Amino acid sequence: MLLNFGVNILTYLISTSSTRVQGFRSFVWTAVSYHLKDRLKLSPSASQFVSSVAFFPWSIKPVYGILSDCIPIKGKRRIPYLVLATLLSLVPWPILGLNDSLRNSRWHLIIFLTAQNLGSAMADVVVDAMIAEAVRFERSSFAGDLQSVSWVSMAIGGICGSLLGGYALNNLEINNIFLLFSVLPTIQLVSCSLVEENSIGCKALPEFADFNSSPFMNGNGIKLDEDNFFKKKSNKSASRRKKGQKNGNGRAVLHTTSQIYEKSNSLPVNWFHSVKIATYSLLRAFRQPIILRPMAWFFLAHITVPNISTVMFYYQTEFLNLDASFLGTARVIGWLGLMMGTFIYNQHFKTLKLRKILLWAHTGLAFLSLLDMALVSRMSARYGISDRNMVLFGSALSDAINQFKFMPFLILSGQLCPPGIEGTLFALFMSINNFGSTVGSFVGAVLASILNLSSGSFDNLLLGISIQVLCTLIPVAFLFLIPKEATGISA
């Protein structure tokens, strides 16, 4: 008992250190944004292109989950991958901090930033898996703490990173900021040595084969209707009876698959079969209309709305002359707005139908874009509203409303994950969300290029925001893809 408690405490420490690093990334990425603008002299569209490419590793998170689940390193599935991921997220920063030529080369910078995001995304997946395993082991006694602390740690890291990032830019050189940030991944790397993971041997794990126990299929292999699924999710006792009836099939498949592994003495072959089963189960689950339709909506909700945040960053720093410390404060307000959005959602919105929540969220985002139009057209200044107040007010509200959109995504993702592949399928859902954001950034970069929005040239920015307002309403027409009976209450 004491040993298990100690293991969970260490998992607790690693998860909080990892999520604080994720949140604190705003400290260094603010510096990256200024470096692209001031040192490399990139246009807003080119700067957004660099950032979009660098963040692409967050769009393929299931790959990391499948690898860590199916291919153990020296009999261990978590800590070796976490060490590798931490090294990938650590090494680029001291290199960029010490080598001026690499730091000032666009393509070298893209390579190092992409490698850094690869490590961060992989670490995020591995830590999520470690948390899930600790939650499953301890059940109710430890479950709520790990998830809650992960969110709180990320928020604390984001607030600290935003505050210190602006201060650092006003007092330190970019290379010193890169070197200073490398301290955090180093601490995370040291924390990995504190955990001793139990060895599972070198066999690949066929745990993904238990997909036949999926709640999307009844005993006769007939797909369940979406609305019936969400109605039945509220009846937990009935769900448990259904799962009990299907466990026989799951165990039979698992036993058959295990025999396949026993017949093969080749470790690479075992790994190949395990990866194949995991991939097949993942794709088979994703093809279910009850999963495919809502995930298609969240993807469309990103790609149909051009992201011109980088253009607004250039406008705020060059035309409005807002300094780095103030923009850091604005990001802090944004983090607080995100936390406020989470609280309001849990108190007042979670009982509503998801379609209604998402409708109001997109309507609110369109309204906030109108506030940006008032800022750019200088209408707010004519009415005596300062630019700083407009930016602070818009930052807090936009992050709060975006949380109203993200919370239904998290809730729906949790409801849709069938047993046996929860972690990897949830990583796939997050990847879809991240990839949609990346595509939306590319669309925004293309729009900025078409409108000739560049450093010092913002004549067409008002037109760009107007296009964004109209595009924000497009996903509303596709809300029929969201299950009708789904609500914000996690089942």
TrEMBL record:
Compartments, record wording: Membrane
Gene3D superfamilies in the cross-refs: MFS general substrate transporter like domains
Chief location of this protein within or outside the cell: membrane
Pfam families (UniProt xref): BT1
Keyword Membrane: yes
Record carries keyword Transmembrane: yes
Protein keywords: Membrane, Transmembrane, Transmembrane helix, Transport
Membrane topology reported for the UniProt record: Multi-pass membrane protein
Cellular component terms (Gene Ontology): membrane
Ranges annotated as spanning the membrane: 79-95, 107-127, 148-168, 296-315, 327-345, 357-379, 424-450, 462-482
CDD domains on file: MFS_FBT
Family label: Belongs to the major facilitator superfamily. Folate-biopterin transporter (TC 2.A.71) family.
Protein name, as recorded: Biopterin transport-related protein BT1
